[in-house]
Amino acid sequence: MIVIGSDHGGYKLKEEIKRYFDEKEIKYIDKGTFSEESVDYPEIAKAVAKEVSEKRADTGILICRSGIGMSICANKFKGVRCAPCYEEQTAKFARMHNNVNILALGADYISTNDAICIVRQFLATEFEGGRHTARVELINEIERENMK
Fold first, then answer.
1. Which CATH superfamily is domain 2-146 in?
2. Of 64, 73, 82, 85, which residue is the catalytic one?
3. Does the annotation mark 97 as catalytic?
4. What pLDDT digit, counting tens, does each position of 12-49 carry?
5. pTM for this structure?
6. N or C: which end of the chain has fewer CB within 10 A?
């Protein structure tokens, strides 16, 4: 299951990604926002990150104008590794090497077509494991030590 959310700046792009999901029969949960009316992006990031953190969703997608604010907020949740990605390669390596479970997109910096390619790459890429497993575990250890 994928959980998706955006603020007002990412609303139009979110709707295009949802249209892609519907065409491909990919299941998702939409946590808002549901219009271009101004909202506080941390509330949306919280709703999406909570679904991933509590394992009600496997992956998430957050969209705001830059992807940065959303990723900062999402990374405050245990078990969440969120990365802003602006092209397919960063999405691929975020998954392969860092086991990222939430993708953040910046609607002001990518086209709809590019966003769908990034999402497709993100969802198609598996964690590589191997030498990266120990590094991700170090991230998890730091999280356990500092998020009490």
1. Sugar-phosphate isomerase, RpiB/LacA/LacB (3.40.1400.10)
2. 64
3. yes
4. 999 999 999 999 999 999 999 999 999 999 999 999 99
5. 0.96
6. C
